[in-house]
TrEMBL record, chain A:
Pfam families: LUD_dom. The lineage of its organism: Bacteria, Bacillati, Actinomycetota, Actinomycetes, Streptosporangiales. This is LUD domain-containing protein. Residues 99-193 form the LUD domain.
TrEMBL record, chain B:
Residues 74-292 form the LUD domain. It comes from Nonomuraea rhodomycinica. This is Lactate utilization protein. It comes from the Bacteria. The lineage of its organism: Bacteria, Bacillati, Actinomycetota, Actinomycetes, Streptosporangiales. One of its GO terms (molecular function) is metal ion binding.
Length: 196, 461
């Protein structure tokens, strides 16, 4: 019987690298970045992607969410803090993402240097479809969830969970390299940073 | 259905000569590459540790390649443990057979696709079509290419050769639900694509993707994108099939901290691309299949000089700085991998049997700009010189010399080549080694001043 593709490929690799030198990996890059004002930097960098950004004291978050959401019908994921649920959100449990106007979530981690929010489908973050299909995403980021750089975020995250890293609204630069917001993902991203 | 590059005729000089005559194409390319180039330089300049990240990225890839067998076996274990299925494919035909079989097993006849170089390389769409399965590209640029019955011409911006007016024409002509009053505003064109693909996303049961990275330690796959069509394909369908080159594996989760900094800044020139998705095995109950593709990669790995091409993370930074690419365009390279990386990868993956592939190592003036921007420090000029020594001499070489001559003879082109080279004086190889040195002796660039006279004149005058 002929060898399987797996055995063939592995054998070819072993022949190809036979006698090649071992490699040391120099990790002299920054694993913790310095930033005096994480909230300020994060807000600025998210804003650079043309997302809408608010910095709000934690106690005022519920009122601010209610004001921002207005009459929109929002998907409310399981585990969203009670105060973050917009007043006229449809009952208990999540609305149908295919017909809702938007979705409101928390996040797992946020990265100041790159203006990135990471969702891991944990409590209050919804399934991947819930945060993808609606055209509008309101994300609440607590100040203590913001790290300075990418390495700190990677070390905080759990690879076993499906992760979505979001840096601004959906965009394309495929037409003459003009950035156009909103192709298939939410066309509007609004970020509420809750400070203590 | 977009055409396939496999068996594309011609050679680089002939193809590029055609492109050079097309002034619209030249204008589009120049505008586009210069825009990304500027953005890249500014976001790379923001990171004080760029060179350290680059050194780490290079070493992580080299270490992976050194023990590629071990990491692939580990990856197979971790993906399987997380509920995924792993398949191995020696070549394009085997990979296409596996994917077609998996699609048929679902009973579906349509798949949605997120842009993937590997599936273009193996001509998957055509192979699926032959089995009665329709593959729908969902990237805006891929859609433009597919509807226009065209070839992609850039790794990152496959329709870079089309301007907005041409895209509008293609949509009105080929997209049945294009609004009749469609304008050529980029936002209107994007909206038309959004509407066109929306239903398809929601109803498709099977998706095919590639991946930018696979983590051996955890079994995690990683896809970077901008539009959200990637998220749609990776998330909504019940079955996900990812076709990934074996060199895309990384040893550890931690290694992503390097590549998630190197790749977005090098490719779109952003601090981070809009969306990055990671998933491990069967996520949220999805049926997940990983097809590991060799297709010539183990041949590349066996070449001590050429194997560094396998470090490539397909950022396209080398295309955007290449004076030859800027004039010749992506199609001249006759492969899904255009530009400097294509000039070293294609002849190694496919061999140099055809006139086209044998002419590719000459599609360069060896100015070194590609090496300087490469986030994993692939010494493209070094590999080019090595391949030239290995290429069958004769027709391809004579033709190739004409290409280099063409770039360097014309005054305007020389000015651009000098500007690019001026920033990179240290890196410009003065002479080729061995028997080819006679060639460079007569064609060597004159000493390259830090700022060319022409730039000085424009600035001062
Ligand atoms: S060779 Fe380097 S610069 Fe070119 S696409 Fe690959 S990683 Fe990017």
């Amino acid at each position: 019987m002929s060898r399987s593709a797996r055995e063939d490929i592995l054998a070819r690799i072993r022949r190809a690298v036979d006698g090649a030198p071992e490699v040391e990996i120099p990790r002299r890059y920054r694993v913790t970045a310095e930033a005096d004002d994480l909230v300020g930097l994060f807000a600025e960098r998210v804003g650079d992607y043309r997302a809408i950004v608010h910095v709000v004291p934690e106690a005022e978050v519920p009122a601010r969410i209610a004001a921002i959401v207005g009459g929109r019908r929002m998907v409310v994921p399981d585990g969203l803090p009670a105060g973050w649920t917009p007043p006229d959100a449809p009952g208990a449990g999540p609305a149908d993402p295919y017909t809702a106007d938007g979705v409101v979530t928390g996040c797992a981690v946020a990265i100041a240097e790159t203006g990135t929010i990471v969702l891991d489908t944990g409590p209050g973050q919804g399934s991947r479809a819930q945060t993808l299909v609606p055209d509008y995403h309101l994300c609440v980021v607590r100040a203590d969830q913001i790290v300075a750089g990418v390495p700190e975020a990677v070390s905080r995250l759990d690879p076993a969970r499906p992760l979505t890293w979001i840096s601004g609204p959906s965009a394309t630069s495929d037409i003459e390299l003009n950035r156009v917001e909103g192709v298939h993902g939410p066309r509007t991203l609004e970020v509420l940073i809750a400070t203590p | 259905m977009s055409a396939t590059f496999l068996g594309m005729p011609g050679n680089f000089p002939k193809n590029s000569a055609r492109a050079v005559q097309d002034s619209q194409l030249r204008y589009n390319l120049r505008k586009a590459t210069h825009t990304i180039r500027g953005k890249r330089a500014s976001v790379v300049g923001e990171l004080p540790d760029w060179q350290e990240l680059r050194a780490a990225g290079k070493a992580i890839k080299d270490e992976t390649l050194r023990h590629l067998d071990r990491y692939l076996v580990q990856l197979e274990e971790t993906v399987t443990a997380a509920g995924g299925h792993v398949h191995w494919a020696r070549d394009a035909a085997e990979a296409n057979r596996i994917v077609a079989g998996l699609v048929k097993a679902t009973g579906e006849r349509e798949v949605v696709k997120v842009k993937s170089m590997a599936t273009q390389e193996i001509g998957l769409n055509e192979a699926l079509a032959a089995e009665g399965i329709t593959a729908y590209e969902t990237d805006l640029a891929e859609l433009i290419v597919q509807l226009g019955d065209d070839f992609p011409s850039h790794i990152l911006v496959p329709a870079i050769h089309r301007n907005r007016a041409e895209i509008r024409e293609i949509f009105l002509d080929r997209m049945d639900d294009a609004p009749p009053g469609l304008t050529d505003e980029p936002a209107a064109l994007a909206e038309a694509a959004r509407v066109h693909l929306r239903e398809r996303f929601l109803r498709s049961k099977v998706a095919v993707s590639g991946a930018n990275f696979m983590v051996a330690e955890t079994g995690t796959l990683v896809v970077l994108e901008s539009e959200g069509n990637g998220r749609m394909c990776l998330t909504l369908p019940e079955t996900l099939i990812s076709v990934v080159g074996i060199e895309k594996v990384l040893p550890t989760w931690r290694d992503l901290e390097v590549f998630l900094q190197l790749l977005p800044r090098s490719s779109t020139g952003e601090r981070m691309n809009p969306y990055t998705s990671t998933w491990t095995g069967s996520a949220e109950g999805q049926d997940f299949h990983l097809v590991l593709l060799d297709n010539g990669r183990t041949d590349v790995l066996a070449d001590e000089v050429g194997r560094q091409a396998l470090r490539c993370i397909r950022c396209s930074a080398c295309l955007n700085v290449c004076p030859v690419y800027e004039r010749a365009g992506g199609h001249a390279y006759g492969s899904v991998y255009p530009g400097p990386i294509g000039a070293i990868l294609t002849p190694q993956l496919r061999g140099m049997g055809s006139e086209l592939d044998a002419s590719l190592p000459y599609a360069s003036s060896l100015c070194g700009a590609c090496y300087d921007v490469c986030p994993v420090a692939i010494d493209i000029p070094e590999v080019l010189v090595d391949l030239r020594a290995k290429a069958p001499h004769g027709a391809a070489e004579r033709a190739g010399m004409r290409v280099a001559g063409w770039v360097l003879n014309d005054q305007a082109r020389l000015a651009a080549a000098q500007r690019a080279a001026g920033r990179l004086r240290r890196l410009v190889p003065r002479r080729l080694p061995g028997p080819l040195s006679a060639w460079t002796d007569t064609r060597d660039l004159p000493g390259i001043p830090e700022e060319s006279f022409r730039d000085w004149w424009e600035r001062e005058g």
